C-alpha cells in the first residue's frame, strides 16, 4: 500500500516556485543588519521564500519571508495584509540538505519534514522593495572562517558565580567573559525565574547587555533568543516571569538590530493580565530610543485612567519619555494620585507615586 500511494508521482524532485513554476535556488543565510532566523531566497518572478528545516516553525518562516520581501522593513511588513497586499504558499517535504522535495518524507535514513514558505508581494508593493531584495540575495553571509575572532583562555563562569555577580550588579565582570562563555546566556535566563524581584530585573538587564555584545558577531543567535522569549510569553502554560523584561532590555541595548520585534509587544496591551508587563518593556526600550515607539504614543493616553495604579504610572512615565503633548490634561488629572509604582533602571528599583511620574512626564512635554 505504501508504494501505491506514490505510484505515478515523482518521489524526489527539484524545488519550484508555486507562483511561476520556475526552479528556485537553495535558500541561503544573509549578512543583514536585521538578522534572518532562517535561510531565504528569491525567485525571478519576484516571490521570496524562507526555509523552515523542521516544518514546525511555519509562523516564524512566514515572518522571515514577509520581512525579507519588504527589504527588512518591519514597519512595512506589519502594515501589509494577506490577499490585499501579498500571496503566500507553503511547499512541504523540503530537504535543505539536498535542496529537493522528498514525497516519501524519508531520505537516506533521515526524516524530511522541512518546508519552504513563499511570499509574493503584489506588484505595487514589490516595486518599492525589489531592488533591495535583489542586492541582499547577492550578498551571502560570511563563512565562519571569514569572521576573525580572538579568544582568550579565560574560563567560563559557574552558575553560582553568575548568580553572585548578577545579585551584586557587577556587569563588567560578566561582559568581560561573555565572548568565551557559551553558557552565559543560559545561566542568565535561569535567573529570570528568580522569586526576588530585584534579582530578576537585574538578570534581564544584564541579559540585554550580554545579548548586545553577542549580537556584534552572531545576531542570529540573539534573534532566536528573542523568539524563544516571545514564544514563552504566548504559551499561556509557560511561566513567563522575566520574559517581558528581557525582551525589553535586549531591544533597548541593540535597537538598530532588534527594533523589528517591538510590534509584537503591542498586542499584549489589549490583554489585561499582560498589559503592565508590555508597558514596562516598552518603557525600557523608550529610555534609549523613544522614536521607535512614538508613532503609536497616543494609544497610551487612555491607559492613564486604568483602574490599576501600576498601569497608570507606567503609562504616565512612557508618555513623558515619548513627549506626547496631547496627554497633558490627562496627566494633570493624576497629580494627586499617591499610589506607588516600582520602576527599574541600571540595577536599582525605585518606588515613585503615580502623581510624581505624571509630574515628571509633564515636565518632559
Describe the structure.
By secondary structure, the protein is an alpha+beta fold. Helix content is 43%, strand content 13%. The chain has two domains: 2-140, no CATH class; 159-364, Alpha Horseshoe (Leucine-rich Repeat Variant), CATH 1.25.10. The protein is built from 16 helices and ten strands. The strands form three sheets. A six-stranded antiparallel beta sheet has the order 1-5-4-8-3-2. A two-stranded antiparallel ribbon has the order 6-7. The protein has a two-stranded antiparallel ribbon with strand order 9-10. Helix 9 (219-234) runs antiparallel to helix 10. The chain is globular and about 75 Å long. Residues 1-8 and 140-153 have low confidence and may be disordered.
Amino acid at each position: 500500500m505504501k508504494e501505491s500511494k506514490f505510484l505515478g508521482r515523482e518521489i524526489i524532485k527539484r524545488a519550484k516556485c508555486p507562483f511561476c513554476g520556475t526552479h528556485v535556488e537553495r535558500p541561503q543565510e544573509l549578512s543583514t543588519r536585521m538578522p534572518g532566523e532562517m535561510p531565504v531566497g528569491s525567485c525571478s518572478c519576484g516571490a521570496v521564500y524562507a526555509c523552515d528545516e523542521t516544518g514546525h516553525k511555519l509562523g516564524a518562516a512566514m515572518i522571515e519571508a514577509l520581512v525579507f520581501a519588504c527589504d527588512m522593513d518591519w514597519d512595512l511588513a506589519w502594515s501589509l495584509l494577506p490577499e490585499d497586499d501579498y500571496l503566500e504558499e507553503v511547499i512541504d517535504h523540503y530537504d535543505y540538505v539536498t535542496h529537493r522535495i522528498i514525497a516519501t518524507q524519508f531520505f537516506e535514513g533521515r526524516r524530511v519534514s522541512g518546508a519552504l514558505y513563499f511570499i509574493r508581494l503584489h506588484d505595487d508593493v514589490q516595486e518599492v522593495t525589489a531592488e533591495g531584495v535583489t542586492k541582499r540575495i547577492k550578498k551571502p553571509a560570511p563563512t565562519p572562517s571569514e569572521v576573525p575572532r580572538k579568544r582568550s583562555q579565560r574560563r567560563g563562569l559557574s552558575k553560582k558565580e553568575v548568580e553572585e555577580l548578577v545579585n551584586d550588579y557587577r556587569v563588567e565582570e560578566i561582559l568581560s567573559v561573555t565572548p568565551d562563555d557559551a553558557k552565559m546566556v543560559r545561566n542568565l535566563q535561569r535567573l529570570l525565574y528568580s522569586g526576588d524581584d530585584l534579582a530578576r530585573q537585574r538578570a534581564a538587564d544584564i541579559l540585554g547587555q550580554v545579548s548586545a555584545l553577542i549580537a556584534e558577531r552572531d545576531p542570529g543567535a540573539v534573534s532566536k533568543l528573542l523568539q524563544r522569549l516571545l514564544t514563552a510569553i504566548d504559551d499561556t502554560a509557560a511561566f513567563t516571569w522575566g520574559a517581558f523584561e528581557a525582551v525589553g532590555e535586549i531591544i533597548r541595548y541593540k535597537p538598530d538590530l532588534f527594533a523589528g520585534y517591538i510590534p509584537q509587544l503591542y498586542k499584549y496591551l489589549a490583554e489585561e493580565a499582560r498589559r503592565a508587563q508590555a508597558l514596562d518593556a516598552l518603557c525600557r526600550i523608550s529610555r534609549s530610543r523613544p522614536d521607535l515607539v512614538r508613532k503609536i504614543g497616543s494609544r497610551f493616553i487612555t491607559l492613564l485612567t486604568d483602574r490599576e495604579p501600576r498601569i497608570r504610572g507606567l503609562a504616565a512615565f512612557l508618555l513623558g519619555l515619548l513627549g506626547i503633548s496631547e496627554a497633558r490634561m490627562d496627566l494633570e488629572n493624576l497629580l494627586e494620585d499617591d499610589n506607588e509604582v516600582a520602576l527599574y533602571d541600571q540595577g536599582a528599583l525605585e518606588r515613585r507615586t503615580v502623581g510624581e511620574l505624571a509630574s515628571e512626564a509633564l515636565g518632559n512635554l
